[in-house]
Design goal:
- By secondary structure, the protein is α/β, with parallel strands linked by helices.
- It has two domains: 7-45 and 287-387, Aspartate Aminotransferase, domain 1; 64-283, Aspartate Aminotransferase, domain 2 (3-Layer(aba) Sandwich).
- It contains twelve helices and twelve strands.
- The longest helix is centred in the C-terminal third of the chain and has 26 residues, at 285-310.
- The N and C termini lie far apart (61 Å).
- The structure holds pyridoxal-5'-phosphate.
- Residues 40, 100-102, 126, 172, 176, 204, 206, 234, 236, 242, 247 line the site of pyridoxal-5'-phosphate (PLP).
- The site of pyridoxal-5'-phosphate has 13 residues, from loops.
Amino acid sequence: MNFTWADRMERLGTESAFEVLAHARRLEAEGRDIIHLEIGEPDYGTPQNIIDAATRALNDGATHYTPASGIPVVREATARYVAGRTGVPTSAENVVIVPGSKNILAFLLLAVINAGDEVIVPDPGYPIYRSLVSFLGATPVSAPIRQSNDFRLDVEELSSLVTPRTKLLIVNSPANPTGGILTRDDCESIAKLAVEHDLVVLSDEIYGRLTYDGEHVSLYSIDGMAERTVLMDGLSKAWAMCGWRLGFGVMPVELAKRMDTLMINSSSCAAAFTQMAALEAFQSPESDAAVDAMVADFRGRRDLLVDGLNRIPGITCRRPAGAFYVFPDITATGLGERELQTGLLEEVGVAVLAGTAFGPHGAGHIRLSYANSSANLQRALERIALHVGAGAVPPA
Ligand SMILES: Cc1ncc(COP(=O)(O)O)c(C=O)c1O
């Protein structure tokens, strides 16, 4: 049959990481050797104690629907975990457990955004923010994130973007795709702005455990922010659990009740055994040790990649303080970001993403993920150097 698509489908974007991955897989099927630096997920396995907890839960009968917002003990444990990390008194009623933190973003937009509203989104930023805002008929307004400002939001510039139609501000620290983090001063200035203009704030802290320099400051922890902030987080990145699909949001109780209804109308609940695995992730010292070991390893890889990229003529790369991405400036190679994305993949088998996949302000940059082994990062550096005409990577 000939489907007639709803108008809104025209406005729905995508994540080009998935498209580049599909292209890379096709090349691999033809026998090519591809180094995957396009991926947004840890290459580590989930810690064994968490897998064991999930298996135990399945054997103990965690195979049924759960309450829409999550199993009460899991909501309680999540509240304790967040309170412990932020110092903000948080109760189970503030917590909504979802199958992947993306749902918190979607549900918040569905709950508070009308067509015609404006939502300030980081640019470059996670493409799903912009996609879902447009999908709902609202307008995404770019808040530029620049390398010259260490990939932090420029709060003065941010305040100039607020209009009477601005409803929501989306903030992501540590950030995808830049790895930038907000300082405490930044968070306090953003909080002041949000209070002054009565804005709801979505604070996407999915990379909150992955910081290497400086502290991770949660906007939720800043005075006066708990009542207007939705803290979005999940198990995907910190515990290497992307495929488990488990995320959570922390928010004012009246909003949590709306999200409960949205869960009833969509997924019903997150899978019971994954929720039980979250208990183990939040509560066991073994899980904490696994996160710490992964962070230490990521730090070494970050340094290897940043140092290597900076030795390639034409590429300049900041040392990001968090997440597992670098976002080098490639303008001096004389190649555009799309051209480089395609050339690196097709000619030398290195999968990366063009900066513009994350918004117009990503022009002149590419994103590389260091969720890959040091040996592969080293091989990728050699191939990139070759491709941009620099020959071998000059020694340190
Ligand atoms: C900034 C950001 N937010 C949210 C997500 C989605 O995470 P989840 O697996 O919890 O849906 C990602 C995944 O790449 C991300 O990069």
